[in-house]
Amino acid sequence: MKKPVLSNSLPSVIQEIGKNKRVIFTKNQEELIKKIGELSYQKERLKEIGEKGFKYIMKNYAWSKILYY
Hints:
Layout: E1 5-8, H1 11-17, E2 23-26, H2 29-39, H3 43-60, H4 63-66
Parallel strand pairs: 1-2
């Protein structure tokens, strides 16, 4: 959907996708809420993060990549 993703720093999530600029990780719920407030004014950055995430998913997790014919 090309939307930015914010997540708590859950070990399984970090292990699966790694720390990068496609997902914004926070340490706890309070930090997550604060980050959402900060980012709400950064429309271009949010768009860029969403685009990067979309490209990553299409490259690594699209049906054509994970299904065997």
